UniProtKB/TrEMBL annotation:
GO terms for biological process: autophagosome assembly; protein folding in endoplasmic reticulum. This is ER membrane protein complex subunit 6. It comes from the Eukaryota. InterPro entries: Emc6, EMC6-like. It comes from Apiosordaria backusii. Its main location: endoplasmic reticulum. It holds the Pfam family EMC6. It is found in: Endoplasmic reticulum membrane. It is a multi-pass membrane protein. Belongs to the EMC6 family. One of its GO terms (cellular component) is EMC complex. The chain crosses the membrane at residues 29-46, 53-72, 102-125. Keywords: Endoplasmic reticulum, Membrane, Transmembrane, Transmembrane helix.
Amino acid sequence: MPSQQELDLQISPLVQESLVHNSRTLHNLQSLTASLFGVGAGILGLESYSGFLFYLLFSLITTLLFYTLRIAPASISSSSSGTGASNKGGVLARYFRSPLDFWTAGLTNGLAGFILTWTLFYGLVRA
């Protein structure tokens, strides 16, 4: 007798190409916004820990908005049609490799771009 998780995967299978596409889309969004956050931190003249807290806060807000606007509506529509995500990891496991990867990958992906644009615009404003 197949388990509920096996039945869910037979009804709506996880496709690796889709998982890679979703991860790449999120990575591109986080890289772009990290550069924009660097511009903002540089223009505001933030230094040291305040600049990194600015980046951390706004990166988490960006990920939360992505989840709220793109993933949550899709999960609501899929759960109302009877193919809810009852597997381990919940809704995020249906669209991304792991929930931890979804929430924390953006912090490291965009850090270099953030620091680059932060120091550039800080120097331009202070010059």
